Amino acid sequence: MIPLIFQPEGSSGIIIHVKGGRGLVRRLAELGLTQGTRIKVLKETGYGPMLIEVRGSRLAIGRGVAAKIFVDVDNGGS
Predict the structure, then answer these.
(1) Which CATH number fits domain 2-74: 3.30.450.20, 2.30.30.90, 3.30.200.20, 2.60.40.1930?
(2) pLDDT score of 77 more than 80
(3) What are phi and psi of 44, to 5 degrees?
(4) In Å, what is the CA distance from 19 to each residue of 10, 16, 56, 70, 73?
(5) Fewer CB within 10 A of the end CB, N or C, for the chain?
(6) According to DSSP H, which parts of 31-70 are helical?
(7) Does residue 78 register a pLDDT over 50?
(8) How many CB atoms are located within 10 Å of the residue 15 CB?
(9) Which among 61, 44, 50, 53 has a CA at the least distance from the CA of 13?
(10) What share of the chain is helix, strand, coil (3-state, %, to 5)?
(11) 45: exposed, middle or buried (C-beta count within 10 Å: 0-12, 13-18, 19+)?
């Protein structure tokens, strides 16, 4: 389990935990970022927002938020 911010571009995994207050957890749930959801990193430059794919949608999230999303890395998933 690692923070999403450390996943390289092109990698995927399953969301295990979101560490944050009720407001952040609720907002991420509204975007589809919930425990057990597959997530893929589409663009990661090392600075600025990350582009991710969740439930067939593309989202840009800030690095601070990405640091609070913990994932189980999946090396073979889509």
Answers:
(1) 2.30.30.90
(2) no
(3) -140, 110
(4) 23, 10, 23, 8, 17
(5) C
(6) 63-66
(7) no
(8) 20
(9) 53
(10) 20, 40, 40
(11) exposed
- Indicate the pTM of the whole model: 0.88
Average pLDDT across the chain, whole number? 92
- CA-wise closest residue to 12 among 2, 26, 27, 21: 2
The Cα 39–Cα 73 span in angstroms is 10
Written as one letter, the residue type at 17 is H
- The CA distance from 28 to 58, in Å, is 13
- pLDDT tens digits, residue range 20-42? 999 999 999 999 999 999 999 99
Evaluate the CA torsion angle 12, 13, 19, 25 in order and state its sign.
Answer: positive
